[in-house]
Design brief:
The protein has a domain of 61 residues: 434 Repressor (Amino-terminal Domain) (Orthogonal Bundle), CATH 1.10.260. It contains 16 helices and 5 strands. A 3-stranded mixed beta sheet has the order 2-4-3, sandwiched between helices. The chain has a two-stranded parallel sheet with strand order 1-5. α1 packs across α5 and α6 packs across α11. The chain is elongated and about 75 Å long. The two termini are 38 Å apart. The mean pLDDT is 86.
Length: 347
Protein backbone atom coordinates (compact mmCIF):
# COMPACT_ATOMS: atom_id res chain seq x y z
CA UNK A 1 0.00 0.00 0.00
CA UNK A 2 2.85 2.41 0.84
CA UNK A 3 4.36 1.92 -2.61
CA UNK A 4 1.05 2.83 -4.23
CA UNK A 5 0.73 5.92 -2.02
CA UNK A 6 4.30 7.02 -2.79
CA UNK A 7 3.76 6.47 -6.53
CA UNK A 8 0.46 8.33 -6.68
CA UNK A 9 1.81 11.17 -4.54
CA UNK A 10 4.32 11.81 -7.34
CA UNK A 11 1.58 11.50 -9.99
CA UNK A 12 3.28 8.49 -11.52
CA UNK A 13 1.55 5.77 -13.48
CA UNK A 14 3.03 2.28 -13.23
CA UNK A 15 4.68 2.87 -16.60
CA UNK A 16 6.18 6.13 -15.32
CA UNK A 17 7.55 4.32 -12.25
CA UNK A 18 9.17 1.62 -14.40
CA UNK A 19 10.78 4.34 -16.54
CA UNK A 20 12.12 6.22 -13.51
CA UNK A 21 13.68 3.05 -12.05
CA UNK A 22 16.16 2.94 -14.95
CA UNK A 23 18.42 -0.10 -15.11
CA UNK A 24 16.94 -1.37 -11.81
CA UNK A 25 13.44 -1.50 -13.32
CA UNK A 26 11.07 -4.41 -12.95
CA UNK A 27 7.98 -5.09 -15.04
CA UNK A 28 4.72 -3.21 -14.70
CA UNK A 29 3.04 -6.51 -13.84
CA UNK A 30 5.49 -7.05 -10.96
CA UNK A 31 4.77 -3.57 -9.58
CA UNK A 32 1.04 -4.30 -9.72
CA UNK A 33 1.57 -7.54 -7.76
CA UNK A 34 3.75 -5.76 -5.17
CA UNK A 35 1.12 -3.06 -4.63
CA UNK A 36 -1.56 -5.72 -4.17
CA UNK A 37 0.57 -7.66 -1.70
CA UNK A 38 1.00 -10.64 -4.04
CA UNK A 39 4.77 -10.27 -4.46
CA UNK A 40 7.47 -9.40 -1.91
CA UNK A 41 10.02 -6.96 -3.38
CA UNK A 42 13.76 -7.27 -2.83
CA UNK A 43 15.71 -4.55 -1.00
CA UNK A 44 17.24 -3.53 -4.36
CA UNK A 45 13.79 -3.12 -5.90
CA UNK A 46 12.50 -1.17 -2.91
CA UNK A 47 15.54 1.09 -3.09
CA UNK A 48 14.88 1.78 -6.78
CA UNK A 49 11.21 2.55 -6.09
CA UNK A 50 12.17 4.83 -3.19
CA UNK A 51 14.54 6.82 -5.44
CA UNK A 52 11.91 7.04 -8.19
CA UNK A 53 9.24 8.27 -5.74
CA UNK A 54 11.57 10.66 -3.88
CA UNK A 55 11.15 9.01 -0.47
CA UNK A 56 13.78 7.46 1.85
CA UNK A 57 14.08 3.66 1.80
CA UNK A 58 13.15 3.58 5.50
CA UNK A 59 9.74 4.99 4.48
CA UNK A 60 8.66 1.48 3.42
CA UNK A 61 9.67 -0.16 6.70
CA UNK A 62 7.81 2.02 9.21
CA UNK A 63 4.35 0.45 9.51
CA UNK A 64 3.34 1.85 12.90
CA UNK A 65 1.81 5.07 11.57
CA UNK A 66 -1.98 5.06 11.63
CA UNK A 67 -3.27 8.21 9.98
CA UNK A 68 -6.73 9.34 11.03
CA UNK A 69 -9.55 10.59 8.83
CA UNK A 70 -8.55 13.20 6.27
CA UNK A 71 -11.37 15.71 5.77
CA UNK A 72 -10.43 17.68 2.65
CA UNK A 73 -13.59 19.84 2.51
CA UNK A 74 -13.33 20.35 -1.25
CA UNK A 75 -15.16 23.49 -2.40
CA UNK A 76 -16.25 21.82 -5.63
CA UNK A 77 -16.68 18.34 -7.06
CA UNK A 78 -13.52 16.65 -8.27
CA UNK A 79 -12.91 13.38 -10.11
CA UNK A 80 -12.44 10.35 -7.85
CA UNK A 81 -9.00 9.63 -9.35
CA UNK A 82 -7.84 13.18 -8.64
CA UNK A 83 -9.14 13.04 -5.06
CA UNK A 84 -7.25 9.77 -4.48
CA UNK A 85 -4.07 11.32 -5.89
CA UNK A 86 -4.35 14.29 -3.52
CA UNK A 87 -5.00 11.97 -0.57
CA UNK A 88 -1.91 9.90 -1.45
CA UNK A 89 0.21 13.05 -1.70
CA UNK A 90 -0.88 14.20 1.76
CA UNK A 91 -0.40 10.77 3.35
CA UNK A 92 3.05 10.46 1.80
CA UNK A 93 4.11 13.88 3.10
CA UNK A 94 2.83 13.11 6.61
CA UNK A 95 4.68 9.78 6.65
CA UNK A 96 7.94 11.31 5.41
CA UNK A 97 7.76 14.09 7.98
CA UNK A 98 7.00 11.88 10.98
CA UNK A 99 9.57 9.32 9.88
CA UNK A 100 12.22 12.05 9.98
CA UNK A 101 10.94 13.13 13.42
CA UNK A 102 11.20 9.57 14.69
CA UNK A 103 14.74 9.16 13.39
CA UNK A 104 15.90 12.34 15.11
CA UNK A 105 13.84 11.46 18.21
CA UNK A 106 13.24 15.12 18.90
CA UNK A 107 11.09 15.90 21.92
CA UNK A 108 8.55 18.68 22.37
CA UNK A 109 5.86 19.62 24.82
CA UNK A 110 2.47 18.23 23.94
CA UNK A 111 -0.62 20.42 24.10
CA UNK A 112 -2.65 17.30 24.99
CA UNK A 113 -5.47 17.70 22.53
CA UNK A 114 -7.33 14.54 23.54
CA UNK A 115 -10.02 16.39 25.55
CA UNK A 116 -12.06 18.27 22.98
CA UNK A 117 -14.11 21.25 24.14
CA UNK A 118 -17.86 21.17 23.51
CA UNK A 119 -18.76 24.16 21.35
CA UNK A 120 -22.27 25.23 20.41
CA UNK A 121 -21.98 28.96 19.72
CA UNK A 122 -19.57 31.67 18.61
CA UNK A 123 -19.29 32.77 22.25
CA UNK A 124 -18.20 29.26 23.23
CA UNK A 125 -15.41 29.43 20.66
CA UNK A 126 -14.41 32.87 21.94
CA UNK A 127 -14.14 31.57 25.50
CA UNK A 128 -12.00 28.62 24.43
CA UNK A 129 -9.46 30.98 22.85
CA UNK A 130 -9.18 32.91 26.13
CA UNK A 131 -8.48 29.70 28.06
CA UNK A 132 -6.08 28.42 25.41
CA UNK A 133 -4.08 31.64 25.36
CA UNK A 134 -3.72 31.36 29.14
CA UNK A 135 -2.61 27.74 28.83
CA UNK A 136 -0.03 28.72 26.21
CA UNK A 137 1.10 31.60 28.45
CA UNK A 138 0.70 34.23 25.75
CA UNK A 139 -2.04 36.27 27.46
CA UNK A 140 -3.25 39.02 25.17
CA UNK A 141 0.02 39.41 23.27
CA UNK A 142 0.19 39.03 19.48
CA UNK A 143 1.28 35.54 18.40
CA UNK A 144 4.82 36.04 17.09
CA UNK A 145 4.76 32.89 14.94
CA UNK A 146 1.84 30.47 14.78
CA UNK A 147 4.06 27.80 13.21
CA UNK A 148 6.71 28.11 15.93
CA UNK A 149 4.08 28.09 18.67
CA UNK A 150 2.56 24.91 17.27
CA UNK A 151 5.94 23.18 16.92
CA UNK A 152 6.78 23.92 20.56
CA UNK A 153 3.43 22.39 21.58
CA UNK A 154 3.95 19.18 19.61
CA UNK A 155 1.57 20.16 16.79
CA UNK A 156 3.16 19.31 13.45
CA UNK A 157 2.68 21.64 10.47
CA UNK A 158 3.42 20.43 6.96
CA UNK A 159 3.14 22.53 3.80
CA UNK A 160 2.26 20.78 0.53
CA UNK A 161 1.46 21.87 -3.00
CA UNK A 162 -2.08 20.84 -3.93
CA UNK A 163 -3.21 22.26 -7.25
CA UNK A 164 -6.73 23.50 -7.89
CA UNK A 165 -9.91 22.77 -5.95
CA UNK A 166 -9.35 25.59 -3.44
CA UNK A 167 -8.15 23.36 -0.61
CA UNK A 168 -6.77 25.63 2.12
CA UNK A 169 -5.78 23.02 4.69
CA UNK A 170 -6.76 19.97 6.68
CA UNK A 171 -5.89 18.32 9.96
CA UNK A 172 -5.76 14.85 11.47
CA UNK A 173 -4.30 12.72 14.25
CA UNK A 174 -1.63 10.11 13.58
CA UNK A 175 -1.67 7.06 15.89
CA UNK A 176 -4.69 8.70 17.59
CA UNK A 177 -2.55 11.22 19.48
CA UNK A 178 -0.11 13.08 17.20
CA UNK A 179 -1.76 16.25 15.81
CA UNK A 180 -0.83 17.13 12.22
CA UNK A 181 -1.93 20.19 10.25
CA UNK A 182 -1.55 20.43 6.48
CA UNK A 183 -1.28 23.83 4.78
CA UNK A 184 -1.69 24.15 1.01
CA UNK A 185 0.93 26.58 -0.28
CA UNK A 186 -0.99 27.13 -3.54
CA UNK A 187 -4.02 28.66 -1.83
CA UNK A 188 -2.36 30.25 1.20
CA UNK A 189 -0.39 32.91 -0.64
CA UNK A 190 0.25 35.29 2.26
CA UNK A 191 1.66 34.86 5.74
CA UNK A 192 -1.61 36.14 7.21
CA UNK A 193 -3.54 33.49 5.29
CA UNK A 194 -1.19 30.72 6.51
CA UNK A 195 -1.58 31.84 10.12
CA UNK A 196 -5.37 31.97 9.89
CA UNK A 197 -5.63 28.58 8.14
CA UNK A 198 -3.32 26.91 10.67
CA UNK A 199 -5.48 28.15 13.56
CA UNK A 200 -8.67 27.22 11.70
CA UNK A 201 -7.36 23.66 11.38
CA UNK A 202 -6.39 23.64 15.06
CA UNK A 203 -10.03 24.41 15.81
CA UNK A 204 -11.07 21.28 13.91
CA UNK A 205 -8.70 19.27 16.13
CA UNK A 206 -9.64 20.65 19.54
CA UNK A 207 -13.30 21.68 19.24
CA UNK A 208 -16.20 19.29 19.56
CA UNK A 209 -18.75 21.33 17.63
CA UNK A 210 -22.41 20.49 18.31
CA UNK A 211 -24.50 23.27 16.82
CA UNK A 212 -27.66 24.57 18.47
CA UNK A 213 -31.10 23.74 17.14
CA UNK A 214 -32.83 26.37 15.05
CA UNK A 215 -34.91 27.55 18.03
CA UNK A 216 -31.90 27.82 20.35
CA UNK A 217 -29.89 29.46 17.59
CA UNK A 218 -32.53 32.16 17.22
CA UNK A 219 -32.32 32.83 20.97
CA UNK A 220 -28.53 33.08 20.72
CA UNK A 221 -28.90 35.77 18.05
CA UNK A 222 -31.29 37.86 20.16
CA UNK A 223 -28.43 39.91 21.60
CA UNK A 224 -27.73 41.28 18.11
CA UNK A 225 -31.39 42.18 17.61
CA UNK A 226 -31.30 44.35 20.74
CA UNK A 227 -28.54 46.59 19.35
CA UNK A 228 -29.50 50.14 18.32
CA UNK A 229 -27.97 49.47 14.88
CA UNK A 230 -28.26 46.53 12.48
CA UNK A 231 -25.71 43.72 12.76
CA UNK A 232 -26.67 40.56 10.91
CA UNK A 233 -24.60 37.59 12.11
CA UNK A 234 -24.73 34.48 9.95
CA UNK A 235 -26.09 31.25 11.39
CA UNK A 236 -23.30 29.21 12.97
CA UNK A 237 -21.80 26.33 11.01
CA UNK A 238 -18.74 24.24 11.82
CA UNK A 239 -16.62 26.17 9.33
CA UNK A 240 -17.80 29.57 10.64
CA UNK A 241 -17.12 28.50 14.23
CA UNK A 242 -13.56 27.55 13.22
CA UNK A 243 -13.16 30.90 11.41
CA UNK A 244 -14.30 32.69 14.57
CA UNK A 245 -11.85 30.69 16.69
CA UNK A 246 -8.93 31.53 14.36
CA UNK A 247 -9.70 35.26 14.34
CA UNK A 248 -10.13 35.32 18.13
CA UNK A 249 -6.79 33.56 18.61
CA UNK A 250 -5.05 36.09 16.38
CA UNK A 251 -6.60 39.16 18.00
CA UNK A 252 -8.54 38.78 21.28
CA UNK A 253 -11.67 40.89 21.56
CA UNK A 254 -10.24 43.02 24.40
CA UNK A 255 -7.27 43.95 22.21
CA UNK A 256 -9.55 44.85 19.31
CA UNK A 257 -11.79 46.96 21.58
CA UNK A 258 -8.76 48.87 22.85
CA UNK A 259 -7.59 49.44 19.30
CA UNK A 260 -10.80 50.65 17.69
CA UNK A 261 -13.38 51.05 20.46
CA UNK A 262 -16.68 49.25 21.10
CA UNK A 263 -18.89 51.08 18.60
CA UNK A 264 -17.73 52.66 15.34
CA UNK A 265 -19.60 54.13 12.42
CA UNK A 266 -16.47 54.18 10.24
CA UNK A 267 -13.07 52.43 10.19
CA UNK A 268 -10.06 53.83 8.37
CA UNK A 269 -7.69 51.83 6.20
CA UNK A 270 -4.78 53.14 8.31
CA UNK A 271 -6.29 51.56 11.45
CA UNK A 272 -6.80 48.25 9.68
CA UNK A 273 -3.25 48.22 8.27
CA UNK A 274 -1.84 48.92 11.74
CA UNK A 275 -3.71 45.92 13.20
CA UNK A 276 -2.62 43.71 10.30
CA UNK A 277 1.03 44.63 10.84
CA UNK A 278 0.90 44.02 14.59
CA UNK A 279 -1.28 40.90 14.87
CA UNK A 280 -0.65 39.09 11.58
CA UNK A 281 -4.30 38.90 10.54
CA UNK A 282 -5.64 39.97 7.16
CA UNK A 283 -7.66 43.15 6.79
CA UNK A 284 -10.61 41.12 5.49
CA UNK A 285 -10.53 38.98 8.65
CA UNK A 286 -10.29 42.10 10.83
CA UNK A 287 -13.39 43.54 9.17
CA UNK A 288 -15.26 40.26 9.71
CA UNK A 289 -14.20 40.26 13.36
CA UNK A 290 -15.30 43.85 13.91
CA UNK A 291 -18.68 42.93 12.49
CA UNK A 292 -18.94 39.70 14.54
CA UNK A 293 -18.23 41.68 17.73
CA UNK A 294 -20.81 44.32 16.72
CA UNK A 295 -18.17 47.07 16.56
CA UNK A 296 -19.44 48.02 13.11
CA UNK A 297 -22.91 47.61 11.63
CA UNK A 298 -23.99 45.97 8.37
CA UNK A 299 -23.71 49.22 6.44
CA UNK A 300 -20.04 49.85 7.31
CA UNK A 301 -19.23 46.16 6.89
CA UNK A 302 -20.61 46.17 3.35
CA UNK A 303 -18.97 49.51 2.63
CA UNK A 304 -15.52 48.24 3.65
CA UNK A 305 -15.85 45.11 1.53
CA UNK A 306 -17.24 46.94 -1.50
CA UNK A 307 -14.67 49.74 -1.47
CA UNK A 308 -11.59 47.98 -0.07
CA UNK A 309 -11.49 44.18 -0.08
CA UNK A 310 -13.35 43.46 -3.32
CA UNK A 311 -11.05 45.90 -5.15
CA UNK A 312 -7.84 44.46 -3.67
CA UNK A 313 -8.38 40.81 -2.73
CA UNK A 314 -4.67 40.19 -2.06
CA UNK A 315 -4.48 43.40 0.04
CA UNK A 316 -1.41 44.47 -1.92
CA UNK A 317 0.20 47.65 -0.61
CA UNK A 318 -1.68 47.53 2.69
CA UNK A 319 1.19 46.65 4.98
CA UNK A 320 1.90 43.06 5.93
CA UNK A 321 3.04 40.98 8.87
CA UNK A 322 6.86 41.17 9.01
CA UNK A 323 7.47 37.58 10.20
CA UNK A 324 7.38 34.91 7.49
CA UNK A 325 5.64 31.68 8.46
CA UNK A 326 7.65 28.88 6.87
CA UNK A 327 7.21 25.14 7.49
CA UNK A 328 10.81 24.11 6.86
CA UNK A 329 11.19 21.61 9.70
CA UNK A 330 11.26 18.54 7.41
CA UNK A 331 14.10 20.05 5.40
CA UNK A 332 16.01 20.86 8.59
CA UNK A 333 15.40 17.37 9.99
CA UNK A 334 16.68 15.77 6.79
CA UNK A 335 19.79 17.99 6.88
CA UNK A 336 20.39 16.99 10.50
CA UNK A 337 20.01 13.28 9.68
CA UNK A 338 22.44 13.68 6.79
CA UNK A 339 25.01 15.49 8.93
CA UNK A 340 24.76 13.04 11.82
CA UNK A 341 25.15 10.11 9.44
CA UNK A 342 28.30 11.75 8.02
CA UNK A 343 29.66 12.24 11.55
CA UNK A 344 28.93 8.60 12.43
CA UNK A 345 30.81 7.45 9.34
CA UNK A 346 33.84 9.44 10.44
CA UNK A 347 34.05 7.73 13.85
Amino acid sequence: MKIKIARKSQRLSMDDLVSRMGDRAISKNSISKIERGLLRPSVQTLSAIADACNVPLSYFYDDDMRIGKLDFRFTKDIPTKKAEQIKCLVISEIQKYLLAENIVCSESDNLKLSRRKLIRTYDDAENVTIDLRKKLEIGYQPIFSVYELFMNCGIHIIEVDIEDYDILGLSTFVCDSIPVIIINRNTNKTTERKRFTALHELAHLILNIRLLSDNDDCAEMDKYKKLPYKVTVKKATSERICHHFAAAMLIPQNCLFKRVGHIRTKLSLEELVSIRNMYGISIAAIIHRCHDLAIIDDKEYNNLFDNLINKNIMETGWGGYPIMEKADRLKLLEERIKLECINLNRI
